[in-house]
Write a structure and sequence with these properties.
Helix content: 10-25%
CATH class: Mainly Beta
Shape: globular
Order of helices and strands: EEHEEEEHE
Distance between the termini: 5 Å
CATH superfamily: Protein of unknown function DUF192
Strand order of the largest sheet: 5-4-6-3-2-1-7
Number of helices: 2
Strand content: 35-45%
Largest sheet: 7 strands, mixed
Number of domains: 1
Oligomer: single chain
Length: about 110
């Protein structure tokens, strides 16, 4: 299992969407998420067809957060050209964890 970490503190379990199929599916068809999902190679996300709001942290190549947004269902973000991946979780979790622009995230485990 993989973990999302910030400042040596485990924030959540982490799913890794490391294929085009997994990235395309993302959180679609779910009623929520426990933990987070990492989407490498992602510069834009959408919540079209989703049942719940999400927080999205857009990260650069070093997994430093560039921008955090909250998306209600049926929304689309603009492409974030400086970003190389995105981390999605339930709406409100990044604020709860104290994650914002400049935060350095890590993936540990599988």
């Amino acid at each position: 299992m993989a973990w999302l970490v910030h400042d040596n503190k485990v924030l959540a379990s982490l799913e890794i969407a490391d294929t085009a199929v997994r990235r395309g599916r993302g959180l679609l068809g779910r009623d929520g998420i426990e933990g987070a999902i990492w989407l490498p190679g992602t510069r834009s996300v959408h919540t079209i067809g989703m049942r719940f709001a999400i927080d999205v942290a857009f990260c650069d190549g070093d997994l430093t957060v560039v921008r955090v947004v909250t998306l209600r269902p049926n929304r689309v973000t603009r492409p974030m050209l400086r970003c190389r991946s995105a981390v999605e979780t339930s709406a409100g979790m990044f604020a709860r964890w104290g994650i914002g622009p400049g935060a350095a995230l890590e993936m540990r485990g599988d």
